[in-house]
Design a protein that fits this description.
The structure is a homodimer.
Chain A: H1 20-34, E1 46-61, E2 67-68, E3 71-72, H2 73-87, E4 90-102, H3 107-124, E5 127-136, E6 144-154, E7 170-173, H4 179-189, H5 205-215, E8 219-223, H6 229-241, E9 244-248, H7 256-265, E10 279-282, H8 287-295, E11 304-310, E12 317-320, E13 326-329
Parallel strand pairs in A: 4-5, 9-12
Antiparallel strand pairs in A: 1-6, 2-3, 4-6, 7-10, 7-11, 8-10, 9-11, 12-13
Helix pairs in contact in A: 1-3, 2-3
Chain lengths: 341, 341
């Protein structure tokens, strides 16, 4: 196996000591790949200018396996937090980045993850401004966990709040559901399909920015249904906004292979995690314009309406099935797919 | 064992699902204990107002054991990041808080940790504004890891930068060294002393604020020597600032019991982690005033000078030993005490 510049084939406890080995790892991997004016100061923190309302979100990523079709834990950690900041109606600007590495992680894998972080951050237009690296003993972690905390400027025309959701709002999504969860599950279960199921992991901030630029406060609410899937997130929103939500099975965008994989594993795609999907609640008068805008963007080509907000059955989500039935969609109770993000 | 309100004696994978169990854990433990106007919105992120230069720092905490004399991982996670923000010359305002819990963690311990987070945040004057909870399978983590990311306003009179360190600067510390590391090691090794060695874990932002209010840019540099201890941090600073640093063994504040424990375990206290200690580089003309101010504060009662900056032996730290010798203090190479913070 080729050694990295640092001369180590694997991360060991010394890399988390705070001493020379930590510094070498930072210099030879992290600063080399991610280096920018702020990180290069090598202080324990960074100073940036910030004016106005700031959206902040944090997430720890524990996905397993750490490499999967369509991505890896590094880019997922960037996309996940960038998207959470965007869902606040904000333009993500900066990220912090903290690793908890299990002793023995292949240095090449670590380098590849840091490189993915860099690419995803560049694509999302955010800067990594401060970080941390800890190492735990073999068997006390699982390869690598990553925390990112992101902050961004709230868009001047945005007014995203659960209280703005009202009867008649249309609920649109930017693409097919359940891609990420089923990509991970296929890896874990070793399922083979005609073509691989690929995670939808991507940054959504570009598309959200265009929506806010164009439609301002007619965008009432944004949310990316990650863990728990679309069903859990819509159920939460129905409770928090004290509205009813109706969704239509025939409108739910679902790739054939993903549907097949779900069926094979006995999973309901409504509860499966997404990483590049968001639901947007809009004023009904702009529905068509929003869909048109979304469909012109790479992350929204398959945008479609999935449901609407009603004043009946408040606090509940009702699914209209393809065969004409109706059922209440409950949120996920326990665990369906652990460590999906 | 008494069940908690949530009805579960231990954290399980369902608590990390993003579904109903996650929501219950949030409502019954996290929001109940930490709840504030921002967290109560239960969005994936929070929006706060911010104006001007902002200091940001992130740290993941993996200390083992998670409870130790003088603290636990919860308060450590608050103090550590609050202090890193303060070391940038800033007043910490907000924290994010992300848990990675190993399946099986006793719910009472989790509650106790969250309560400690709350107390430490209140004492430090910071608000927890957003968070995340993930659960990993038994054997894929180690009870609990915590990431905090902190944000603070840079003090208007602060100018903390390694380039401001100059020849003649005095290096002061606020108290005895090696307390935290030896408190953890005593727990791990089951050492018994006449009285227990207690971690120095505390928030330093109050004291730093007083120093900046009083002395402004005559405070040239601040740094808290956590992992790697005072030796590693001063060595890094000597390199980064391109100055020489001299420290005097007889001036190093070290409690008798800590010295005894270090000797017993063959550890050099200069390399042992601290969690409530900081080194401040000051203009020599204010040395006495700074020491006096520090000694009036609870976290600085044993403040003392430990060294000074010279123009000789640039990039190196030289220790003057009690018996009149001199030796170069090298930074820690590998790992001395894994998972000390």
């Amino acid at each position: 196996m080729k050694k990295t510049d640092s001369g180590f084939e694997a991360i060991n406890l010394g890399h988390g000591s705070g001493g020379v080995m930590t510094r070498d790892l930072l210099d030879q991997v992290i600063f080399r790949i991610l280096g920018n004016e702020l990180l290069d100061k090598k202080h324990d923190g960074s100073v940036v200018q910030f004016e106005g309302p700031m959206a902040v979100s944090t997430d720890s990523f524990v996905v397993s396996p750490i490499f999967f079709k369509g991505g890896n834990i590094g880019e997922l950690a960037v996309h996940g937090t960038v998207n959470d900041v965007a869902m606040c109606g904000a333009v993500p600007k900066y990220l912090s980045l903290a690793f908890i590495v299990e002793e023995g992680l292949d240095m090449k894998e670590f380098v590849e993850i840091v490189e993915s972080v860099k690419r995803a951050a560049d694509k999302s237009g955010v800067q990594i401004i401060t970080g941390d690296t800890k190492v735990v003993e073999r068997g006390k972690g699982d390869k690598i966990f990553i925390n990112t905390t992101g902050f961004g400027e709230v868009h001047p025309r945005a007014n995203i709040a659960v209280k703005n959701i009202r009867e008649g709002d249309k609920i649109l999504v930017n693409g097919p559901i359940a891609q990420h969860g089923m990509a991970i599950m296929s890896e874990r279960e070793g399922l083979e399909f005609e073509s691989a199921i690929v995670s939808d992991s991507t940054n959504l901030n570009d598309l959200v920015l265009k929506l806010l630029d164009e439609f301002g406060d007619k965008i009432h609410f944004l949310r990316d249904p990650t863990r728990g899937g679309l069903a859990s997130v819509l159920s939460e929103i129905a409770v928090d906004a004290k509205v009813g939500i109706e969704i239509f099975e025939e409108q739910l965008p679902l790739e054939k292979q993903v549907a097949a994989a779900c069926e094979m594993l006995g999973l309901d795609p409504l509860y499966v995690a997404n990483e590049g999907l968001f639901a947007v609640f809009v004023d009904p008068e702009i529905e068509q314009e929003v869909l048109e805008l979304m469909r012109h963007e790479s992350s929204g080509q398959l945008a479609t309406r999935v449901g609407e907000v009603t004043s009946t059955h408040r606090g509940k989500v009702v699914l209209h099935s393809e065969i004409g039935g109706k059922r209440i969609v409950t949120p996920l109770i326990g665990e369906q797919l652990p460590r999906i993000c």
